Amino acid sequence: MVTMKEIAQQTGVSVSTVSLVMNGRDGGRVKPDIAAKVRKVAQILGYQVNPMARSLRTNHTRMLGFISEEVATTPYAGGIIKGAQDAASRLGYMMISVSTDGDADEDEEIAALKRYGVDGFYYAKMSNRVTRVPRSLMDMPLVLVDATDPEGRFPSIEPDEFRIAYDATTRLIEAGCERIAYVGCSENMIAQDGRLAGYHAALEESGAGYSERLVANVLNNGPALNAVSELFDREQPDGFFCFNDARAWYVYECAARRGLTIGKDISVVGVDNHRVFAETLEPQLTTVELPHYEMGFWATCKLVSIIENRSLDDLELPHTTAPLPPLDAPIPAKIHCALIEKHSVRS
Amino acid sequence: MVTMKEIAQQTGVSVSTVSLVMNGRDGGRVKPDIAAKVRKVAQILGYQVNPMARSLRTNHTRMLGFISEEVATTPYAGGIIKGAQDAASRLGYMMISVSTDGDADEDEEIAALKRYGVDGFYYAKMSNRVTRVPRSLMDMPLVLVDATDPEGRFPSIEPDEFRIAYDATTRLIEAGCERIAYVGCSENMIAQDGRLAGYHAALEESGAGYSERLVANVLNNGPALNAVSELFDREQPDGFFCFNDARAWYVYECAARRGLTIGKDISVVGVDNHRVFAETLEPQLTTVELPHYEMGFWATCKLVSIIENRSLDDLELPHTTAPLPPLDAPIPAKIHCALIEKHSVRS
DNA sequence: ATGAAAGCGCTAACAG
DNA sequence: CTGTTAGCGCTTTCAT
């Protein structure tokens, strides 16, 4: 490991000077030619800062702590974490992610991360829920991910559920469907409200109109299948927007039993949580992919902007809001969704 | 942040003494009563070591670097990472996991982790493959996870594919199946060889005998479905062992089309990769869950044992090899599998 | 414009 | 047994 001392010796200057140069703090303080020489020697020797030594003085480590639960059991997590990590890496940060089982070890893990000197925290839930933020996090730079603080004190990154549903439903409308059903979730989830509203809005706006009779909010297993089955027979829908791919599966099953082919006799758009169908059958239903990666990515940007007290735009990372794919394609396609960025109260 | 200095002042001793006590290196070196006093003051003040400051002297950080690819896209990763992290946390280590896209950023991420001073690395692939270990990892304590080094130079933790298949097939035999098919994977994967062998062995041992005609190695989508369909009609199997749940899905689909009920007319055991079925339908097929968590857990233990140059048994962690569930249960049940621990060549 | 010196929190060699 | 001293690699006054 090359140290500043070595560079100093090689160049014939003091460590202080090297430090100044390596941190870009020369500028009327170090003669340009000597600065250049330092840089060159550093280059040749392959100098890398030692973040630990630096942190001892500066009290910041460029490490970020990612706290989440359930990571082990949900496939969603990967995308968020990957996105967060990518952005961190680009911004010169290191992300340490820790998943907890319950409140018990949560505080322990947070304490451990604090000991290691992380500069800020993500607090993530897998699938948007109203969430109590741990006390121990409140005095730190903090961003919520896929979670909602009841009092709105902390910035959060959440998928735009309304737009997801609005887009998906519009897709069905433009595909020519006239009786569009919604197979939703009967659990109390934030996503459910937004999606139902988006579905509703899209229908109203198109002039097709909304009817409660076309909505089935279900849970799972047999009862869910029966409810969808009943919807099938009662309303004979020609299009379905499904809360997730488990729900899409019920539609798939009902269609199969009635000899109907998805993509031909009926159209289905499902929000993709598990990417099951893509791996098992020829693509027959259109899937809308949740913007997990983007959420993670933006969470990092927001968090770093708080830590460094800079505006988001200063970070110079591409504001990628990918364009929507054409609506007439019967094949699966990703829809990237806008992110809602709540106000940040921290000073 | 409480420092040793403060404890020293409060107690009226020197920092050295405090350091000795806090590291348990008193023992004939510090008078018991003064050691006790130090400990008490530390307790009251809520002292926590500063790992960064410590690492500056000791050159070890108690941080572990977890390198993997594909984490974002596979649900398997979570279990491994959770297991690894749990063990790390119990052993007083912090795990930093980083997932890479390709070789390009892999070396960069490794370099970053080295800068941060990690003590050792995991190198993980999602689903066992023969793997080239990056040069930059070779001079570090290293454990492969779900990956195989062609030259067997590094310790690795892999699922015992043979036993997985052997157990699953035995389960079908004991359930009374007489024509047991294997729906495998036609890609060249290590798991495939082991599973086919385990299936084979279980059949031979039971006296039922093995027939190639009952084996269908498939890829996915339509062709896979057709192949399974053909197997169905040609051999009329009454039991199926499936490489993963995508393959089990083809069997499910074929059964449904023929009016057969799984768990009644035919029996199916599938290796569970996505936990799809549990979320969609009443449990009808038996799933074997891969021991991802355990692999991660043991990987950490192995890695730490290398780093600290201790034997695995010294680590004092429970050697949990959970007992197999009863074989006559028609409901899904986890089968925990033994782990293969390859020899470690590092000195 | 540059360097010397102090110190971040901790460990370890060496005195006493 | 305990304290003094030095130093890990870096940043940051403060002299020069």
Automatic annotation (TrEMBL), chains A, B:
Transmembrane segments: none annotated. The keyword Membrane does not apply. Residues 2-58 form the HTH lacI-type domain. One of its GO terms (molecular function) is transcription cis-regulatory region binding. CDD domains: HTH_LacI, PBP1_sucrose_transcription_regulator. It comes from the Bacteria. Keywords: DNA-binding, Repressor, Transcription, Transcription regulation. The keyword Transcription applies. PROSITE patterns: HTH_LACI_1, HTH_LACI_2. SUPFAM superfamilies: lambda repressor-like DNA-binding domains, Periplasmic binding protein-like I. SMART domains: HTH_LACI. InterPro entries: HTH_LacI, Lambda_DNA-bd_dom_sf, Peripla_BP/Lac1_sug-bd_dom, Peripla_BP_I. This is LacI family transcriptional regulator. It comes from Bifidobacterium oedipodis.
